[in-house]
Structure formats: structure tokens, C-alpha cells
Amino acid sequence: MTEMSDLGLMYKRRQGKVLRRVGGAAEGMLVTHLPDVRYLCGFMGSNGTLVLFRSRALLFTDGRYTAQAETEAVGTRVVTASKPAVVEACEWIEAAGIMCCGFDGTRTTVSELGKMQAALSKKLGARARSGMFVDVGAAVARLREIKDAGEVEVLRRAARVGCELFEHMLGFIEAGMTEMAVAGELEYRARLAGAESMSFETIVASGDRSAMPHGRATDRKIQRRGFLTMDFGVVIDGYASDMTRTVHMGGAPRSKGKGVPGQREVYDSVLEAQEAAISAVLPGVTAGEVDEAARSVLRRDGLDGYFTHSTGHGVGLEIHEGPRLAAKQTQKLEAGMVITIEPGVYLPGEFGVRIEDMVLVTATGAEILTPSTKAWIEL
Amino acid sequence: MTEMSDLGLMYKRRQGKVLRRVGGAAEGMLVTHLPDVRYLCGFMGSNGTLVLFRSRALLFTDGRYTAQAETEAVGTRVVTASKPAVVEACEWIEAAGIMCCGFDGTRTTVSELGKMQAALSKKLGARARSGMFVDVGAAVARLREIKDAGEVEVLRRAARVGCELFEHMLGFIEAGMTEMAVAGELEYRARLAGAESMSFETIVASGDRSAMPHGRATDRKIQRRGFLTMDFGVVIDGYASDMTRTVHMGGAPRSKGKGVPGQREVYDSVLEAQEAAISAVLPGVTAGEVDEAARSVLRRDGLDGYFTHSTGHGVGLEIHEGPRLAAKQTQKLEAGMVITIEPGVYLPGEFGVRIEDMVLVTATGAEILTPSTKAWIEL
Fold first, then answer.
1. Nearest Cα to B113, choosing from A117, A134, A105, A102?
2. Cβ–Cβ < 8 Å for A216, A207
3. Where in the sequence of chain A do the CATH 3.40.350.10 domains occur?
4. Whole-prediction pTM value?
5. CB-based burial of residue A254 (10 Å sphere; 0-12 exposed, 13-18 middle, 19+ buried)?
6. Topology of the domain comprising A4-143
7. Which residues pair with B359 in a beta bridge?
8. What fold does the segment set B145-368 form as a domain?
9. Complex prediction ipTM
10. Closest to A108 (Cβ–Cβ): which among B110, B180, B217?
11. What is the pLDDT of residues B46-55, one digit of tens each?
């Protein structure tokens, strides 16, 4: 009898859940999306195909990763493939006598599916071959939406590093610096704090560029009197954090002009919308209801037309996971989900404000994982 | 008559080439892979579907990107979609009377293809619907393998920034620093030098970790007497650079032990293999022949069993593009390709060496875009 570590048991549990989820449609599952592979067996390399079948798990990879896979994929048998990993996986599936294997059509390209089918031998017959692979959809992604205690702990740490970086930046930023210098400092400090990488390209958008929801840092110098929006995250132990704060560069905020709302008014409205959405978070509430909680505050203030994106998204091994918090989404929140709440208002050519927290859905509401201040700040 | 800028003409030319390439199989093409969209029309946002049909180009995006798309996508009509962009694109295709539209099966998931087909109206009839979308493969990716003069210029600049960073790091690195501190400094300097982002997660692997081809920076302290491998790249104006150098941390290299080759011998062999591969580069030569040029040097020295990956890959708007320089690849090199040449030797648990340049395939051979020294360096 081999003893299996806690890690191995955790992976077995996750694998079992996937198989139960696809059980009605298929006997096993072929997993190729790398974050799913990592989630289900621990392997972190860039080439791996996982096959789940009854109580067995096999990871197909190549020679570069054999040693790494044997260390990381606790409890999973590692096969070093000489052909493409997915091809050998399909050959194994056929040899094991599987007649119907699930795959994730949201992650498998048309061309990959063609290769999977071509890997089956002619002996099977055209009918058996065309029936072998069944699209079971994003079965693993749905499972990953609910974080277990260990995952929450890592996400909590990643979020905390984000908050510490924001605190540091408040003491660093001065008018006259370029957006890139600000992004560079933030990313350098992230490294020193132990980040493996940033979660996505850091957004530092100043002045009228704050009106661009996805304004990457440029060599623009940060001016007085405008907003500065920073949207960033760090990856710790594979898990991503995500937060946004918008600060004012001082010199008195611009008040209401003809047709343009005042800077302070917009900030207060976005903050109220963001807090209303957080207050709406509760298991059983739909993602659309949380989105509407933010949107209705902005609507009251005549600003909803300038809120041009959704309210948030799940976050974990990937920066964008389910659930999607957007208008009319009927998916219900569940305890253990970790989501962002990030309404924004963007007045084209003028300015923009976005405020974003990462929150954990708990049995009784929301726990904010990024508790940095959201009060109006003038630098 | 509207005048069209040079940029607009360039995009028109590229679009025309794609249509000629797929012409035998389809009347038009639906493009969803974002680097392809950027290449064909200039749009850099994160949601865009491009439709090419006869001399027309339409970009479907959402409200967040309307203004940006109208600025960036010179010569292309921008449509702000209220449904998912790809759905409105398919509706337009049907309304325009197209009967057969190409798509890239290497970039379209099974589930996306399902959505494309579902977007067509029942009026069309089952036969017309199932015949509408034809997999024309990586037509745009194949086109992108050959860089035009403007692209070469940007890649040259990105590669030059990489070389300057390497020079800087030679003066910065000292034994006792962590790998992460080295990666952090490199990335910070990259920002200051104008990089939009890194091309991929920076690899800094010291001591026995240099035996891992993809060893991301860790909090390990860099020791004397071992190797330090740095593999990194920067993105400038959307184009990625890629280079690797391996330096020795001094204190005399370890000489040959029982069963283990000496550090200096391995370095010299990898360098000779890398230069042999560069010398083999010429239009008309196959990718497999270039790979073999490197591999045969290592074979002569009994090290080919430790060269566990391919010799290189194309690089451009994405860090990994065609052609793939691996054993038996029959694709012929062509002038205008920009590729990496990066053989390595990895002795598990001991040490590893990789040396990588980016080179431009010219009419007469190879031009090295990353001319930093490859001589043995002890820090």
C-alpha cells in the first residue's frame, strides 16, 4: 500500500468531483486546459494532458517535464509521451476500452478535436470513433468557481500583497512622474514581495486617460488636478489577485461643468455603487442582481450610461474565471466563490473612476479580501 | 473620395493576402484570434471579431472599445455590437449573402463554432447552415511568419532593448542575490526602457535550477561556482523580443566528474551548436535542417540526449509563432522570417546551459538581432 499525502487526497477529491459532474454524459474526461490540469493534479508545466477515468488519473507530458511532473503531480501517473501528449492520451483512452470520453468544448479548438479523432485507430470503426469524444463543456471551470479553504488562504495572501503595494504607492507617486515609472515601481515592489508575476498588464491611467477602462501605462507624465487609476494584481502560488483604486492628484477636483459631472460627485457615486454591490453579495443571489445593485446607484445619478462594462468576475488560478457578474446573469452566487466588484464611470475625453475589491462569498455575505481604504485621496 | 493613410493601405494589403490565401476554399474569412485581428486591421482591444469579404473589412467590438477601434482600425468599418461580437459578425455574414466563410480551426474552439452556427437564422436551411463555416486553418498565422520591413524594424528595436538589459544585468548581478531580485531589476529596467510588458515570465535559474529549461525566478539565493541562465524578452509596440544568456558565477567552473561533463565543456558545445544552427539558416533550408545543425554538434559531444526541446520558433506579435524549428520539420525558411535559435543542454540535478539569439532570415543567411556577447562570462 502506498501512502498518499494530503495533497494527493485533495487532487483525488477534485478528480472525483469532475467525474461525477460528467458522469451522465461520459465515462471519463480528457483535460487539456493547463490551469484545469494544474487544479486537478498539481502539474504546472506548459505541456500536459490529463486523462481521468474511474479512479485513475494519467498525465501525459514530454521529456522536458518528466521530473517536474513526477514531483508536482502527486498521486497521478506520469507518462512521458514521444508523440504530442494529447495524441498519446487518446491512444491510451482507446486501449483502455473507453467508449465515450468527455472534453471541454470551450477550451478545445476545432483543430485539436480533429487531432484527437485522428489519433483513434481505424479498428474502432467510423461510428465508434465519431462517438468517442463528447463535449461536456466547462465542467472543471465550474468546479473551480468554488474555492476550498486552501485556495482561499492563498487568494487572501495574494490580495494582501496587493493592498501593501497600494499603500507603498501612495507614498511614492508624485505629479510629473510617468505612468510607466509608476507601473515599474509597483511591479518591482511586487517582485520583492514575492510575486511570481503580475496577474495582467498593470493599468496606470492618468488624467483624461482614466476614461479608458483598460489604459495600460504609457510614457505620459502624470498631471495635477486629474485622476489616477491603478488596476493591478499579483500572482502568489499560482493564484491571482485583482484590485483597483482611483486617487486624485490634488490641486482641487474639477467641479461640475456644462454637461460634465464633477470629479468628486462621480467618485462618490462609483464608491456608493461599489459598496451597494458588495452589500448585495449573498449565496443564492444571482450575479445579475449584484450587477444591478451597482448599476441602479449609477442610474439614480444619471451615470449608468458611462458604466460600459460588467460589475465583476471570479478570480483564482486565472484572472478571469466564472461567475460573470453582468446584467441579466442568472447564475447564483455560492459560498466559497471569490469575485471582483468593480463598477466604473468613464466620461470620454474627460476622466474616469473605477473602484475594485476582491471579495469572498461567505454564508452570511461578503468578506472583503482587499481592505485598502476607498476614501477620497488627494496626493 | 477619402484618402487612405499608409497604415490603411498596409492593412488592406494584408487583408487582400488573406483573402487570396483562402480564396479556393471560402468567399471571406472570420478572424477572432486577437493578434491576427491586430495584424490585419490595427485594433488592439481585448474584444474584436474581424470579417473580411471581397474588398470590405468590418470590425465588430463592444461599447468599451468603439472610440479606440475607430482610431486604431484605420480603413476598417467599426460596428459596436450589443450581442457578442462574433454573433453579430455571423448575422452580418448571413445578411451579406455569403454562403461559405472561412475560420481558423486552430484558434476557434468547438464551443465558439457552435455559437457561430447557432447565430445563423433558420431561414437558411440546415444544409446552408452546416456549409457556411469552413476551417481554412492558420491562414493568418502563416502570413504573419514573414515579417515586412516595418515589423522587422520594431522587432530590431525590441531585440536591442533586450541586449541593453543584458549588459546592465552583467553589472548588477552578484552572488547572494535572489533570483527574484535579479528578475525584478531586469523587469524594472525594461519598463524604464519603454517596454509595454515582458514577452513572457522571466526565467532566472541558478545553480542546479539551470538544469530546468523553464525555471522561473524563485527566492533562491544565487551561489558561486554555478551557472545562471536568464531567458527574457520585452514587448515594444506589440512585438516581442526573446533572448537567453547563461553566465558563470565564478569561483572556477566545475571540471568533469564521474559521469558528468565539465561546465566549460558543456558551455562550449552549446555555443558551437547554436552558432552552427545560425550558420545553417538560409531561405529554402528546412526548419528540421537548422535543428539538426545544432543537434549534430551536441551528438558529436555525447550531449544530444540532454537537449530535450526544439531549436527555436518564430517570434512577432506573439512570443511563439511559426515556423517551428524542430526535428524533421519540413517547412522551408523564407526571407523575412524572424526566429529564435536556442539549443540547450540540461543535466538533471547538476546544471544546464542555454544560449539563444533572435535572427532575421535574409536572402543570404541570418542577421543576428541580439548581438550581445556569447563568450564565456564569469561574474
1. A105
2. no
3. 4-143
4. 0.88
5. middle
6. Creatine Amidinohydrolase; Chain A, domain 1 (3.40.350)
7. B339, B368
8. Creatine Amidinohydrolase (3.90.230)
9. 0.84
10. B110
11. 999 999 998 8
